[in-house]
UniProtKB/TrEMBL annotation:
This is Dihydrofolate reductase family protein. It comes from the Bacteria. Pfam families: RibD_C. Residues 3-181 form the Bacterial bifunctional deaminase-reductase C-terminal domain. It comes from Mucilaginibacter sabulilitoris.
Length: 192
């Protein structure tokens, strides 16, 4: 059975984006790219919300072909092209997309089925609204949070809509030279 692993940048005060979705505060560099590249090669399934998917789809299919494409662009574009993409959306047309499954209504049941049919991990990249919906349904199993050394004060929270207490077990940490800290947690369901 597969598990859903959330990959998200977060401010120190718990926001995934600014109030208008701004992400210009996120620090990325070759050290973080290499760390993430090594990590994502362990899976071939990616999960996105519609907004994040459209952002990815506008860049990654041709990123490796662009003049001056970086090592990260070439590697991630190859992974993106081969990965099975799953998108939570009520508006996208699956017939127009390559190697992509669109889940609309009754997403919780569809994601549970996806987890049963997938061996290994399903990586949820960013997509705070999708993360909120899946957290509310207890469908996220692990979090890889890249904590950026910045306070936003307000914005779109990483965690929202949780219906019951969820304990986290810290599995691993990694400190980058930039000051970004990756926290790898397993979510544990509380039973009363």
């Amino acid at each position: 059975m597969g598990k859903i692993v959330l990959f998200m940048h977060v401010s120190l005060d718990g926001f995934a984006a600014g109030t208008k979705g701004e992400m210009n505060w996120i620090h990325v560099d070759q050290e973080i790219f290499d760390f993430v590249a090594e990590r994502i090669t362990e899976t071939n399934t990616a999960l996105y919300g519609r907004v994040t998917f459209q952002m990815m789809e506008s860049y990654w299919p041709t990123a490796a072909e662009q003049p001056g494409a970086s090592k990260h662009d070439r590697e991630h574009a190859a992974w993106y092209k081969s990965a099975h993409k799953v998108v939570l959306s009520n508006t996208l047309n699956q017939a127009t997309l390559t190697n992509t499954t669109v889940i609309g209504k009754d997403y919780a049941a569809a994601v549970r089925k996806l987890k049963k049919e997938t061996s290994g991990e399903i990586l949820l990249f960013g997509s705070p609204t999708t993360a909120h919906a899946l957290l509310a349904e207890n469908l996220i199993d692990e979090c890889w949070l890249f904590v950026n050394p910045i306070l936003l004060g307000e914005g779109i929270p990483v965690f929202k809509g949780i219906k019951e207490k969820q304990s986290l077990k810290l599995l691993k940490t990694h400190v980058f030279s930039s000051g970004v800290v990756c926290l790898h947690h397993e979510l544990r369901r509380e039973t009363n």
